[in-house]
Design a protein that fits this description.
- By secondary structure, the protein is mostly helical.
- 72% of the residues lie in helices and 0% in strands.
- Helix 4 packs across helix 7 and helix 6 packs across helix 7.
- It is elongated, with a radius of gyration of 21 Å.
C-alpha cells in the first residue's frame, strides 16, 4: 500500500463527503417522512465517511487516546514511506509492515522508538510513562514476533 494510494483515497473520500453534505442539505428543505428517512441515512453515511477519513489521515483508530497511541508515533503509511530508502524490495517492505501490524500498539511503539528512532529504554519509559523493565519486555516481545513473522 503506497502513500500515493492512501492520499488518493483521502482525496476521493473528501470529495464525496462534500457531495453528500450538499445532498443532505438539500433534503432539509422538505417535510416529507420519506425525505426524513433519507436525511437520516445520508447523515449516517457522512458519519461513517468522516470516521474513515480520520482513520486514513491519522493512521490509527479515531478516538483512541490511551497509552502508546497518545504519542502518535506509529502510522502505517509513514513506516512504508520510511522503508522506501532501505534497499528492501516491495515484497520485503510489505512483509515487514505486515509483521509490524501483528504487534500490539505498545509493542509496536516501543519497538519503533527503540529500533527505528534509536531511543534508549530509559528515554522510552519516560516518554510513555512506563517502567524501564516494561519497555524492555515490549521491545523483546516485538523482536520475537517480528523475527518469527518476518525472517
Amino acid at each position: 500500500m503506497s502513500a500515493t494510494w492512501i492520499e488518493e483515497m483521502i482525496r476521493q473520500y473528501t470529495t464525496e463527503t462534500h457531495v453528500l453534505e450538499h445532498y443532505r442539505d438539500s433534503l432539509k428543505l422538505s417535510d416529507c417522512l420519506l425525505v426524513e428517512e433519507e436525511f437520516n441515512t445520508v447523515s449516517g453515511m457522512l458519519s461513517d465517511m468522516r470516521y474513515a477519513l480520520t482513520w486514513l489521515r491519522r493512521g490509527r483508530r479515531p478516538g483512541s487516546r490511551k497509552g502508546a497511541e497518545r504519542t502518535d508515533v506509529y502510522r502505517q503509511r509513514e513506516i512504508y514511506i520510511k522503508l522506501s530508502g532501505t534497499g528492501l524490495n516491495e515484497s520485503d517492505k510489505l512483509s515487514l509492515v505486515d509483521a509490524l501490524l501483528t504487534l500490539s500498539d505498545r509493542e509496536r511503539t516501543c519497538f519503533l522508538l527503540h529500533m527505528a528512532q534509536g531511543l534508549t529504554l530509559q528515554e522510552i519509559s519516560v516518554r510513555l510513562n512506563l517502567s524501564k523493565s516494561t519497555v524492555r519486555m515490549y521491545v523483546d516481545r516485538a523482536k520475537t514476533k517480528i523475527s518469527k513473522d518476518f525472517l
